[in-house]
């Protein structure tokens, strides 16, 4: 049942090397300013920094006090205030700003304009990659998505390219690079340029194939509600940098607890990829096994007991603790989802993915908005509707937008502009004849029939890229056939059998064909920008490890799907992402309703 | 997923009941501080530092002054510099003169905010629209949108030129960003005035309506709040300032229900002004009156007279939804039962009745379906001597009914 452990799986590269490299570089930078130091840390860097170098190590290098700075855009301004305040107080200190992962000209410009350029030294800490788990590497750049796809700011392209270069220099050259998306292309070019400057290492590569994919190639997947365990935990509790905070409702005490969620947690690693419906059965069985293991102690003699305490007890207690935690989490998630009418929400999502009973879906979304259920969820559903239907009908767009603004605030006008710009929520450019006919017919019949007629007309007139893609790639399994979630037969299990993630399907197909041959129709529907390059020959074993880089974020559902795919194909995927994402983070990055 | 709930309970029981005989030493459990952070982590250390500061031992953290202060430093150019590139060392005044005369000029050297604004003010002072526009284009490229708009707010003429420029370029998004500036204005009166000033901007037709609504809404909210203050009729803990329209409507249905359409605070006025759909209105009013347990008001929401003059119950939202909302507001079973009875769809009606324990409806439904077995099953869920139990008994004993099973 558990997908993660299987015989004959190729060994994974050791990514702790990356942590050590980052740590060593940081220590080097700290030692540039000998003596007692106070360290001011950008809030977003706290968690990643914690994974690299804990307080003990910092103290070992004469770091005295640690401060957290919340207001990122004004980090540099705050710094100049600090410098000026010190001047006024007659206090002499030396200052250093360490930019990570890299320094931008804009930062130096601000220092110059604020008149403190001469008072401070600046450095770069090339902390590009944080390993979140054995097979997940993150650039911890959530801003990548908005900066690159909405603002058109390409500042992070070289960062991504540098991350690839780092991987290549530590783990060996890639032999094949596939990709799709404008940003993927730029990152590839950037990486190539960086490689030309450096030396060529000749060591055996640990992974030969790399796949680069832009987030905007597949917006549907991150907008769907997640139902694999790790995805649900992320949706409901927000996993940050590989750890999550569980509140009193989970711990059944009055305390909260922060835990790391990765393969070190033996219970978690077995349920993380499972569809939620399988989780309870598994935890239940584990609890029984645990009890049996504990019960072994009766009837043990002193010798056996001693051995038991020395070898097994610690592990059992650990398992007991983790089991309680995950059962608590599952219970909490169940409660929350039942309260939200999760069943009905999923039904609507599945209908949208399938293209079935769209009018009913719109009614559902309308009521969701009217009842002010959740600002982000209402938006999410609107976007899902728009993408699957290739845009909303004009009258639906205007009506739903008006209702949304009424329910959640007119200040969301700018959010709608952003979503429109990205193609996440837009109006159909329907033909003239269609609208005229609709309004004529509409005058003759009552509301319900108009809705059905609208559906019929719409299906004639529009070109639906998602629908066409979905058909071409068989993303939505035929309804009517029973899908056994206990023995999943394909990647669709991550969405209860309703939908295979488009991004993962593309990866599957390209790897199978060793390129894009035969997929011209598909790439056309995705606006092209696909590429496949052979860099060099490589040893066979490295062929079984594939690096997939998501530019703009990746969801846990996609990671679970790729783990499943890997097992099917006899290979392992390493996921590199600019950041872990989900529907909330994706949409929050596009909100513009606050100062 | 529901069927797995029992498994969950079972596993929970199993885990909690695992008996541990001796209380072994707490060897390797990760030590966690009171705030939930692992001891020794950086987040924990920061919290420790912060709390020691709060206890007054260290100087407080310097406050961040977010407004760019113009007086802070000098401009980014030097009059006395003997640069070969003479053109770029001109003052704002000289630069504007050159621009007016069509001579070559360079704006790149105006890097600091202060210089940029001097340039703009100078352009405005000579009343040359062409020059103003040229400067604005430069500013648009070299200043963040937020700062540009903030400065333009204080300069009418420049703003008008900018708007004109935007009209020609059709940049809706920039207009919206200007509109967004209202969020930086804390005082509601000034914010209302700012929104009013946005009304003349060339938004798209739809967006213009929304901005108009926004202004009208805030204007009314200010008045409603002021009145509430004066009359002290209603608790002040919930302020409706800057709340969305629907929230305002809810507030109105809560505190001002039944007021005449003439007052800004009445639900009917809000409904009309903001063109709220019947469906939305009923949903909101239902929520508010149900919360107050005004079942009579709830009832009136659904009354309509048919063409014969008889009162009928009608709802633009399904009655199963109405029941759901009533239930969430802890409506008594008698009330729930009334609306469950109104559900059209027989399956929804039965499931609703079962869910909310409307015994009479359940019994009547099974009776109408002539389903004897289900009645027997249902009877077992009831209390022995309750009227419902006896009702079932009577039905079962009724020889005239032709049961289907």
Question: Which key features would you list for this structure?
Answer:
heterodimer, A: 595 residues, alpha/beta, 7-stranded mixed beta sheet, two-stranded parallel ribbon, 26 helices, B: 405 residues, mainly alpha, 20 helices, 2 strands, 56% helix, elongated
Topology:
The complex is a heterodimer of chains A (595) and B (405).
Chain A: H1 16-30, E1 37-42, H2 46-52, H3 55-60, E2 63-69, H4 75-89, E3 95-99, H5 105-113, E4 120-124, E5 130-133, E6 136-138, H6 143-150, H7 157-171, E7 176-180, H8 182-197, E8 209-214, H9 220-223, H10 229-237, E9 243-246, H11 248-251, E10 257-260, H12 266-271, H13 276-295, H14 302-339, H15 342-354, H16 358-370, H17 375-388, H18 394-408, H19 413-422, H20 432-444, H21 447-461, H22 465-473, H23 502-513, H24 520-525, E11 530-534, E12 545-551, H25 556-569, E13 572-577, H26 583-588
Parallel strand pairs in A: 1-2, 3-4, 6-13, 7-8, 8-12, 12-13
Antiparallel strand pairs in A: 5-6, 7-11, 9-10
Chain B: H1 5-16, H2 42-54, H3 92-101, H4 113-125, H5 129-142, H6 145-152, H7 156-169, H8 172-180, H9 188-198, H10 205-231, H11 245-255, H12 267-273, H13 278-291, H14 295-301, E1 303-305, E2 311-313, H15 319-328, H16 333-340, H17 346-355, H18 359-369, H19 372-379, H20 387-397
Antiparallel strand pairs in B: 1-2
GO biological process, one term (chain B): intracellular protein transport
Region (Disordered) (chain B): 57-77
Protein name (chain B): Spermatogenesis-defective protein 39 homolog
Task: Sum this structure up briefly.
The complex is a heterodimer of chains A (595) and B (405). By secondary structure, chain A is of the alpha/beta class. Chain A has helices at 16-30, 46-52, 55-60, 75-89, 105-113, 143-150, 157-171, 182-197, 220-223, 229-237, 248-251, 266-271, 276-295, 302-339, 342-354, 358-370, 375-388, 394-408, 413-422, 432-444, 447-461, 465-473, 502-513, 520-525, 556-569, 583-588, and strands at residues 37-42, 63-69, 95-99, 120-124, 130-133, 136-138, 176-180, 209-214, 243-246, 257-260, 530-534, 545-551, 572-577.
């Amino acid at each position: 049942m558990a997908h993660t452990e299987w015989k004959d799986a190729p060994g994974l590269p050791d990514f702790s090397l990356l942590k050590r490299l980052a740590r060593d570089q940081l220590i080097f930078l700290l030692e540039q300013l000998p003596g007692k130091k106070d360290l001011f840390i950008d809030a977003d860097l706290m968690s990643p920094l914690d994974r690299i170098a804990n307080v003990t190590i910092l103290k070992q290098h004469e770091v005295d006090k640690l401060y957290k700075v919340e207001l990122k855009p004004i980090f540099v301004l705050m710094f100049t205030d600090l410098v000026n305040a010190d001047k006024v107080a007659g206090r002499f200190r030396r200052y250093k700003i360490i930019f990570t992962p890299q320094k931008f000209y804009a930062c130096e410009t601000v220092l110059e304009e604020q008149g403190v350029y001469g008072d401070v030294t600046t450095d770069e800490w090339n902390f590009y990659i944080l390993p979140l788990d054995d097979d997940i590497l993150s650039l911890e750049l959530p801003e990548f998505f908005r900066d690159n796809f909405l603002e058109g700011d390409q500042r992070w392209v070289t960062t991504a390219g540098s991350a690839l270069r780092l991987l290549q220099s530590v783990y060996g050259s890639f032999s094949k690079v596939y990709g799709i998306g404008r940003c993927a292309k730029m990152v590839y070019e950037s990486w190539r340029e960086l490689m030309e400057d450096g030396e060529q290492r000749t060591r055996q590569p640990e992974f030969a194939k790399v796949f680069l994919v832009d987030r905007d190639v597949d917006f549907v997947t991150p907008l769907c509600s997640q139902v694999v365990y790790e995805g649900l935990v992320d949706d409901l509790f927000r996993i940050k940098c590989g750890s999550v905070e569980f509140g009193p409702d989970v711990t059944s005490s009055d305390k909260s607890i922060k835990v790391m969620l990765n393969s070190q947690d033996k219970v978690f690693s077995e349920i993380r990829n499972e569809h939620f419906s399988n989780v309870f059965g598994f935890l239940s069985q584990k609890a029984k096994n645990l009890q049996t293991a504990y019960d072994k102690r009766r009837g043990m003699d002193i010798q056996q007991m001693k051995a038991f305490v020395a070898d097994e007890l610690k592990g059992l207690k650990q398992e007991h603790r983790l089991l309680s935690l995950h059962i608590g989490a599952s219970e909490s998630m169940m409660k929350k989802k039942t309260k939200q009418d999760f069943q009905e929400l999923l039904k609507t999502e599945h209908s949208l993915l399938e293209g079935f009973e769209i009018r009913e879906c719109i009614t559902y979304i309308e009521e969701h908005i009217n009842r002010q259920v959740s600002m982000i969820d209402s938006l999410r559903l609107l976007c899902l509707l728009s993408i699957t239907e290739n845009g909303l009908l004009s009258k639906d767009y205007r009506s739903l937008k008006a209702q949304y603004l009424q329910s959640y605030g007119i200040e969301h006008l700018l959010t709608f502009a952003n979503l429109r710009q990205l193609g996440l929520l837009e109006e159909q450019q329907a033909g003239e004849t269609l609208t005229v006919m609709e309004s004529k017919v509409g005058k003759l019949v009552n509301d319900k029939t108009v809705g059905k007629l609208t559906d019929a007309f719409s299906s004639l007139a529009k070109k639906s890229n998602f629908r066409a893609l979905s058909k071409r790639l068989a993303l939505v399994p035929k309804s009517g056939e029973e899908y056994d979630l206990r023995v999943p037969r394909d990647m669709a299990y991550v969405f209860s059998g309703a939908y295979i993630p488009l991004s993962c399907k593309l990866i599957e197909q390209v790897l199978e064909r060793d390129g894009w041959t035969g997929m011209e129709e598909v790439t056309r529907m995705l606006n092209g920008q696909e590429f496949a390059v052979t860099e060099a020959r490589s040893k066979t074993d490295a062929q079984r490890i594939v690096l997939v880089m998501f530019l703009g974020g990746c969801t846990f559902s996609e990671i679970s799907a790729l783990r499943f795919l890997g097992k099917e194909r006899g290979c392992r995927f390493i996921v590199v992402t600019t950041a872990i994402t989900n529907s909330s983070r994706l949409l929050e990055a596009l909100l513009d309703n606050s100062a | 997923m529901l069927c797995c709930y029992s498994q969950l309970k079972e596993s929970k029981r199993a885990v909690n009941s695992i008996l541990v005989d001796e209380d072994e030493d707490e060897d390797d459990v990760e030590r966690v501080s009171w705030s939930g952070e692992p001891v020794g982590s950086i987040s924990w250390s920061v919290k420790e530092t912060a709390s020691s500061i709060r206890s007054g031992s260290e100087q407080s953290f310097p406050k961040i002054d977010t407004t760019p202060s113009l007086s802070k430093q000098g401009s980014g150019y030097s009059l006395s510099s003997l640069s070969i590139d003479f053109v770029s060392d001109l003052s704002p005044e000289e630069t504007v003169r050159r621009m007016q005369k069509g001579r070559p000029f360079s704006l790149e050297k105006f890097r600091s905010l202060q210089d940029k604004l001097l340039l703009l003010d100078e352009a405005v002072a000579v009343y040359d629209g062409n020059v103003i526009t040229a400067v604005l284009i430069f500013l648009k490229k070299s200043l963040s949108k937020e700062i540009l708009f903030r400065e333009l707010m204080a300069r009418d003429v420049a703003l008008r030129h900018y708007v004109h420029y935007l009209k020609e370029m059709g940049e809706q998004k920039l207009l919206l960003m200007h509109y967004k500036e209202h969020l930086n204005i804390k005082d509601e009166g000034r914010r209302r005035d700012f929104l009013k000033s946005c009304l003349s901007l060339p938004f798209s037709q739809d967006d213009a309506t929304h901005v108009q609504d926004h202004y009208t809404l805030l204007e009314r909210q200010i008045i409603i709040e002021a009145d509430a203050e004066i009359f002290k009729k209603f608790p002040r803990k919930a302020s409706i300032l800057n709340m969305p329209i629907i929230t305002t409507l809810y507030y109105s249905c809560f505190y001002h229900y039944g007021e005449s359409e003439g007052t800004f605070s009445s639900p009917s006025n809000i409904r009309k002004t903001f063109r709220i759909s019947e469906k939305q209105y009923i949903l909101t009013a239902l929520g508010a009156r149900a919360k107050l347990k005004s079942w009579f008001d709830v009832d009136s929401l659904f009354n309509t007279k048919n063409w014969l003059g008889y009162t009928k119950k009608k709802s633009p939202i399904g009655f199963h939804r109405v029941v759901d909302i009533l239930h969430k507001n802890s409506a008594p079973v008698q009330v729930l039962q009334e609306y469950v009875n109104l559900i059209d769809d027989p399956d929804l009606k039965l499931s609703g009745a079962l869910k909310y324990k409307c015994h009479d409806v359940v019994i009547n439904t099974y009776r109408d379906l002539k389903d004897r077995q289900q009645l027997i099953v249902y009877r077992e869920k009831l209390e022995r001597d309750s009227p419902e139990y006896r009702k079932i008994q009577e039905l079962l004993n009724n020889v005239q009914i032709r049961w289907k099973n």
